[in-house]
Amino acid sequence: MRVLMGAAHDGLVGDDDLAELYAPPATPWLRVNMVSTVDGSATGDSGRSGSINNAADKKVFDTLRRIADVIVVGAGTARTEGYGPVSTPIVLVSRHAEVPEKLRGAEPGLVLMATCAQADHLDEARALLGDDQVLVLGSHRVDLAALRTTLVDRGWGNILCEGGPHLLRDLVAQGVADELTCTLVPRLVAGTHPRITDGPPIDVPLTLHTLLEEDGTLLGRWLLA
Ligand SMILES: NC(=O)c1ccc[n+]([C@@H]2O[C@H](COP(=O)([O-])OP(=O)(O)OC[C@H]3O[C@@H](n4cnc5c(N)ncnc54)[C@H](OP(=O)(O)O)[C@@H]3O)[C@@H](O)[C@H]2O)c1
Predict the structure, then answer these.
(1) What is the mean pLDDT of residues 27-45?
(2) Residue 17 alpha carbon to ligand 1 centre in Å
(3) What's the count of helices (H) and strands (E) in the chain, helices before strands?
(4) pLDDT tens string 98-130
(5) Residue 67 CA, ligand 1 centroid: distance in Å
(6) Alpha helices of 29-142 — where are they, by DSSP H?
(7) Sheet holding 179-185, edge to edge
(8) What is the Cα 185 distance to its own chain's centre?
(9) Minimal CA–CA distance to 197: which of 31, 78, 34?
(10) How confident is the model at residue 187 (pLDDT cuts 50, 70, 90)?
């Protein structure tokens, strides 16, 4: 992998340098990590990001997970991508609070639910995850700024969000995200697929912080104002 722009490193960087290259500039820090084709698709044939990502993206994906204190993910993405428990705590964001099948029965504390008081599966989520792991952050909607504060108060200052498109859009619209980390894979897929954002329009400038390249794949860090 080589550095095209930004970062202290010049030229080639090894896999061992990635943790340093992707270190948050400050804490607390909330970054969202996404992958897209050159024609702007967030998924390929399978309807999942797994059908568009590649080895370079996987290296960064794994590094970001390794250095994060906590992973935040929209319930839609957890369902579609078939999320299972990992050693880092996963916080699902959902208006309904339904815990996806593969995340049930995880070790206590490894799966949390951020939801609202009106959620129809609230009691079930509490029974499955434990009262302390169900964060009620609003009556009808999930207050994402309150989510960030709650996670930081739990000692999780390096927050990684893995999407999906609606959650990315909402985090940006509510001014809660510090960084978008996005891989552009050198492919075109056409068809009808989601982009990395979805939902009502927003128009937010980004500042390019770092740009890496490997085998034609561009890996960027963009800061939100
Ligand atoms: N290319 C990439 O990097 C990437 C990354 C992630 C996902 N994806 C793809 O994106 C697709 C999924 O898109 P999506 O838009 O459905 O993903 P999403 O944003 O994860 O899912 C939407 C669902 O997540 C919950 N949610 C999201 N934002 C919320 C908010 N602000 N407050 C409360 N709940 C919120 C809601 O769940 P409830 O319905 O439970 O209330 C909502 O229905 C899949 O095809 C997936 O493979 C691609």
Answers:
(1) 97
(2) 31
(3) 6, 10
(4) 999 999 989 999 999 999 999 999 999 999 999
(5) 23
(6) 55-67, 75-80, 122-129
(7) 2-5, 206-214, 217-224, 179-185, 29-37, 158-161, 70-74, 90-93, 111-115, 134-136
(8) 17
(9) 34
(10) very high
Select the more confidently predicted residue: 13 or 70: 70
Query: In angstroms, rounded to a whole number, what is the distance separating the alpha carbons of residues 80 and 46?
Result: 10
Q: Under a CB-based contact definition with an 8 Å cutoff, are residues 167 and 77 in contact?
A: yes
Whose C-alpha lies nearest to ligand 1, atom 28?
167
Ligand 1 center–CA 75 separation, angstroms: 6
Query: What is the position in ligand 1's atom list of the atom closest to the CA of 53?
Result: 1
Q: Which amino acid is at 75?
A: A
Distance in Å, CA 163 to ligand 1 centroid: 6
Among the four given CATH numbers 3.30.1490.480, 3.30.1300.10, 3.40.190.150, 3.40.430.10, the one describing domain 1-69+161-225:
3.40.430.10
Joined tokens for residue 54: 């590649």
Residue 171 Cα: closest atom of ligand 1: 31
Task: Choose the residue to mutate in 98, 166, 183, 196 for probing ligand 1, maximizing ligand atoms within 8 Å of C-beta.
Answer: 166
Domain range summary for the chain, segments of one domain joined by +: 1-69+161-225, 72-156
Distance 205 CA to ligand 1 centre (A): 22
Produce one character per residue of 33-44: b if its CB has 16 or more CB atoms within 10 Å, e if not: bbbbbeeebbbb
Tokens in use for 36?
A: 């897209």
